Amino acid sequence: MECIKAIGISSNYYCRPQPINILWRGKALAALPTRDALLPALMVLAAAKDCHLSSLVAALLPRYTSSDRIKDFARERSLALIAKGEAQPNAFLRTLGLANVDVSSVNTTDGLRLTLSDGRVIHLRPSGNAPELRCYAEAATESDANALVSGVLNAVVSAPW
Question: Is 156 or 22 the better-scoring residue by pLDDT?
């Protein structure tokens, strides 16, 4: 973990192509499309010159992602749902059946991305090309990411929006 702290790399992650914001030694680098993976790879290799690459990888927290969608879900419904989540994120979590956790941050760059106090992430957004609501999740285990997506989508379908 000391290698990770010493090199000062951090970035954000999204489940669909959009800019990656990268901090390198405390300075922001200009955003780049996710399809251009060369710069992040070079940063990791440069950082590994002072320690083994395996040490960097071993220090990373495990993250698993999952995603699914609700078909035939009008964009207007998606946007209304997202607006409710943005206005009252913790109440929104309760509606989704998540009672023992709070929202630690809200990002509305592409839909509604809620980072939870336990480190999990829920990201809801309307599809850009179909009448669908998409749900993405990040968690420490694959089963938790899958359960989060299915639980959120089931709650969305059954809740009185």
Answer: 156
